[in-house]
Specification:
The protein has 6 helices and 5 strands; from the N terminus they run E-H-H-H-E-H-E-H-E-E-H. By secondary structure, it is of the alpha/beta class. InterPro entries: ABC_transporter-like_ATP-bd (IPR003439), ABCF (IPR050611), P-loop_NTPase (IPR027417).
Length: 168
């Protein structure tokens, strides 16, 4: 049995979380409403700015932002909660390469624990300390790098294609 400590803070991200934002609010308004202990707008602007939203992007309605920019609002929100544990489910959907690299840097700087579920080999190769493969109802620890796993998958596909009966 696993028990959660009552003081443990968990932040959860899933690929559709940005769809739950109030589109009529600006990122600044959203964050100020979410964290009323931050009284100064300029302080909150700096916090949001760390996630790549600057200037007009901070004060326009969220509906005017791209999906990737909306994800940045969510990452700022989650980070400001100062979680002990991050649960990230497909966090790179809707993100450009620059944002993925920034996310990798933020994950590597994070002092807490993290569970990352992703198909993004680029992100995994930058942040993973352990790799667990989930297939056929089981989770198995992969004993090598994500690039080796990618090669393993390639060989598996080629083998399956070679053994498939040809259609003539």
């Amino acid at each position: 049995m696993i028990r959660k400590n009552s003081h443990l803070r968990i932040a959860r991200y899933h690929q559709h979380l940005h769809e739950l934002l109030d589109l009529d609010l600006s990122p600044l308004e959203y964050m100020m409403n979410s964290f009323p202990e931050v009284k100064e707008r300029e302080e909150m602007r700096k916090i949001i700015g760390r996630y790549g939203l600057t200037g007009r992007q901070q004060v326009c309605p969220i509906r005017q932002l791209s999906d990737g920019q909306r994800c940045r609002v969510v990452f700022a929100y989650l980070a400001w909660q100062t979680p002990h544990l991050l649960l990230l489910d497909e966090p790179t959907n809707h993100l450009d390469m620059e944002t993925i690299d920034s996310l990798a840097d933020a994950i590597n700087d994070f002092d807490g624990g993290m569970v990352l579920v992703s198909h993004d080999f680029r992100l995994i190769s930058q942040v993973a300390e352990e790799i667990w493969i989930c297939e056929n109802g089981k989770a198995t620890k992969w004993q090598s790098t994500i690039l080796d796993y990618k090669e393993h998958l390639k060989q598996k596909i080629l083998k399956n294609n070679d053994s498939a009966p040809s259609k003539r």
